[in-house]
Design a protein that fits this description.
- The two termini are 46 Å apart.
- The chain has helices spanning 5-13, 26-43, 52-63, 78-87, 94-107, 128-135, 147-150, 154-161, 210-230, 263-274, 281-288, 296-310, 329-338, 342-348, 360-380, 383-390, 399-408, 412-426; strands at 111-116, 121-126, 165-168, 181-188, 195-203, 240-243, 251-254, 257-260, 315-316, 321-322, 326-328.
- The chain folds into 3 domains: 52-230, Beta-Lactamase (2-Layer Sandwich), CATH 3.30.450; 240-328, Arc Repressor Mutant, subunit A, CATH 1.10.10.10; 331-426.
- It is built from 18 helices and 11 strands.
- Helix 17 runs antiparallel to helix 18.
- By secondary structure, it is of the alpha+beta class.
- Helices cover 48% and strands 12% of the residues.
- The chain has a 5-stranded antiparallel sheet with strand order 2-1-5-4-3, with helices on both faces.
- Residues 256-322 form the OmpR/PhoB-type domain.
- Keywords: DNA-binding, Transcription, Transcription regulation.
- This is OmpR/PhoB-type domain-containing protein.
- It comes from Streptomyces pseudovenezuelae.
Length: 440
């Protein structure tokens, strides 16, 4: 039956992040969603009344090769899980989560769950009977519930889209999860703004209410405030923290102040961080500008502006160099790769280095870092790590990674995407799918 005009108008007025409007019949809505889910799995089309956020998630799930009858894999167990949890930043706010949500979860026969930024469950606590039932679908600590592994679900989708989200009944992509309802909100590092993971409440249809979504969002904000209070002091004046991965404008922390730099200043800081011994004006000119007509006067003016932004005493000249140590997220990824900690390196890699930069030296460094990580991922042959890269904005056209993924996870969706990429690569005059775009 097609929706009436009034139904369509009403749907347009609702909050797309809320699963069920007050007054709606949960049983009837669940039946419509089951029919819609079957239509999607059989025909690939998303009928009304599926919300746009869910429809987009279903499509991402299918592209990731997730099947509707899949089961979550458990990545971490026993000592490995305990070590990973103890070192994770969200461990510091678990007492807060339990204080704010523990009684609500236990009394309502719900579960409190916390996942990391890769959708891996770290803690699952709450009502004992509900916990046992959730265990039958591997909703347990150490299990991977990312969208790329389990399809649409609140914790996995919340970290995927970086938004609080509610998932009701058959909105879940995997059938065995469809009797459940959950709401989750991402938790961010208060200093860098990066997603650390998500806090989730999971249970029955009673959670399909706007209040549960607002509740987890408020808990996530409280956790971020607590993390800000628990965070170590800002770096002293003799230290700079530089964040440049996955962003066009660097985030700089120095002397207790956070600064967002312009793109050119970001490029200069990256290069000076790579060369603590300093760079001459001519070296910086060659590293920053493709246009050989750019004069030293232009560069000196840019450096004078940067010196005012940084404050006194941080930028020296003859040669140009930073006078204090720099901790850069690029170096973190490089160190982890050098020690063979591939999973940790992939976790720290938030995206390409200053992706909009065309500075020759920055472009070279961006490709070297991305190629080093992707090579390590291909060698590791971990299907989840490969899937995370392949379904990222920087990896969606990476032919080598898709080929590696097709070996360790040969689903129909993965094979179809690989075939499409190989067809595009074979097209006359099409060279853009080669390494020229990988990790760019």
């Amino acid at each position: 039956m097609s929706p009436t005009a009034s139904q369509f108008e009403e749907a347009q007025l609702t909050d797309p992040w809320v699963a069920l409007e007050p007054g709606a019949d949960p049983a009837e809505h669940a039946r419509m969603l089951r029919r819609a889910h079957e239509t999607f799995t059989e025909k690939g089309t998303v009928p009304w009344p599926v919300r746009s956020v869910v429809a987009e998630s279903w499509r991402r799930s299918r592209r990731a090769g997730v099947g509707p009858d899949g089961t979550a894999s458990v990545d971490l167990t026993d000592g490995d899980l305990g070590t990973y949890r103890a070192e994770h930043p969200l461990a510091r706010v678990m007492p807060l989560f339990r204080e704010l949500m523990g009684t609500f979860a236990a009394d309502g026969e719900h579960l409190l769950a916390v996942c990391d930024a890769q959708g891996r469950l770290l803690w699952v606590e709450g009502h004992a009977t509900t916990r046992r039932a959730a265990g039958l679908m591997n909703f347990v600590p150490g299990a991977r519930w990312a969208e790329t592994a389990m399809g649409t679900n609140a914790p996995g989708t919340a970290v995927a889209v970086d938004r609080p989200v509610q998932v009701f009944a058959a909105e879940h992509f995997t059938r065995r999860v469809q009797p459940w309802t959950c709401a989750a909100a991402p938790v961010h590092d208060p200093r860098t703004g990066r997603v650390l993971g998500a806090v989730d409440i999971t249970g029955g249809n009673g959670l399909a209410h706007p209040h549960s979504l607002g509740f987890v969002q408020a808990v996530a904000r409280a956790a971020e405030s607590q993390l800000a209070l628990l965070a170590p002091e800002w770096p002293a004046a003799d230290t700079i923290e530089l964040t440049v991965l996955g962003r066009d404008e660097a985030h700089l922390v120095t002397g207790g102040h956070a600064i967002r730099l312009s793109r050119r200043h970001s490029e200069i800081l990256v290069l000076l961080a790579r060369h603590p011994e300093g760079l001459t004006g001519d070296e910086l000119l060659c590293a920053l500008y493709e246009d050989e007509s750019v004069t030293p006067v232009t560069l000196r003016a840019e450096l004078a502006r940067l010196r005012r932004v940084l404050g006194p005493g941080l930028l020296d000249s003859r040669p140009y160099r930073l006078t204090v140590p720099v901790e850069c997220d690029v170096a973190v990824v490089e160190r982890r790769l050098e020690t063979g900690a591939v999973t940790a390196a992939a976790t720290a890699y938030a995206g390409p280095l200053l992706p909009g930069s065309q500075a020759p030296a920055v472009v070279r460094l961006r490709h070297r870092l991305a190629d080093g990580l992707r090579t390590a991922l291909i060698a590791r042959r971990d299907p989840d790590l490969l899937a995370d890269w392949a379904h990222s904005p920087w990896g969606e056209d990476d032919l080598d990674v898709w080929r590696a993924l097709s070996v360790v996870r040969p689903t129909a969706a993965v094979r179809a995407r690989l075939a499409a990429l190989e067809s595009e690569l074979a097209a006359p005059g099409d060279w853009t799918r080669s390494g020229a775009r990988r990790g760019s």
